[in-house]
Amino acid sequence: MSRSKQVFALVLTVVCVTWYYHLLDQGSPSEYRITQTGAAVASQTGTPETAVAKVLPLPTVAPTISAKAVTAANAIPSVQSSPNAAAVMTVSTAIPRTCFMELCNLHDGQAPRLWVMEHTDGAGHRMKNILDGLAVAQTVGMNFGGVVSLKHPLTDQHVDFKKLALGFFGGVTDNGGLFYYNESGPPKWFAKVNDPRELLSKMSSFPAGAFVYMPSANDWTNLNGKASEVYPSKLRAGFAHPFASRPLNFAPGRPTVAMHLRRADLPKGNFRATPNEYYYRLADLIRAQLPSPDIHIWAALKNIPADPQDYWSPVDFDGFKERGMSVHLDKGQEDHEDVLVAWAHMVRADVYVMSQSSFAYVPAVLNCRCVIFPGSIGKHLDNWMDGKDVERGSFNDDFMACMQRAKEGRPC
After folding, report:
1. Helix, strand, or coil (residue 60)
2. Is 243 part of any domain?
3. Pair type for strands 50-56 and 64-68
4. Interval 73-88: pLDDT, tens
5. For range 371-390, the mean pLDDT
6. pTM for the whole thing?
7. 188 - beta bridge partners?
């Protein structure tokens, strides 16, 4: 190619990139969008110049992210591939095709990016994998690229997971690039790993901007260190922020308690269907420490559509009503807003009593006050306590410390 043609190609690339960002900046002011505020071109020597892309937020959030550009002669690929050390992603290719929410950009713009898969079952397990993936990424020094999503958005309860995630992360357009890729068209991965420990062991081999795929982040508990190092308060506060403005049904001026019971898909007697008596006992203990707490129960009644047999009925929850608790029984199908309403109460309750489920885990991560889990959690966050093993010597001290956090109402 002649020198004049090379110059023409360079100029054309810069013009196209500039026009692209101009179009992005014309979006609705109520949506996240991208504007270019740095030069996404390099010097004639090929040395990368610093370029900054700002993500313009909803009024309550002000995220910014940075990245470094390579030579403008690098063509923008139609399908983005994982770059090697000699070809770091440009701003124009990196930002639109990866998650550009503030929560996803945890480190320098050239850090490798981690993707996880969208699970195929319930809303709780799917969201748990995203949160765990974000937590693992910040722990090992990566940014979060996003989720390789399913072509069909419905969970096994027929909840539209894309709509659920849209509400969960605060109404960001297209979830801030969170679901840019799906299973039919993933990018070319620099590496695939099986679990967080393998990811950590291979971090030094990843070049700048490498795309790395780890389908499941659930085994983050096998990483060394405390749970709070994987899920630091700042990250948890970022997750919880969109729920701060949601209206709640709690009575004003009273301590608030949210309890989740896993029912719907579990037959009576299943070990994960923690008995009502467990919750009654905890309610009595809580009432002995907190003045007139407003206690609310959430549970789903209907089984998944693939299994039409229902195991539970409203009468199974009469004991809670008789004990002065408010009971919320949703149909457990097809309504993502019901899920968000339940999670909002669990996130912001002074005391949150979990069930044995991924659905319960999600808001527990976002609640930094008193969280009580029913055993069976190997590594838990600092503000969580085991509510089942009442015979252990530390139970009373653990419970009283939890009640103190509830009284303080401490945020993340």
Report:
1. coil
2. no
3. antiparallel
4. 222 223 333 333 233 3
5. 92
6. 0.77
7. 81
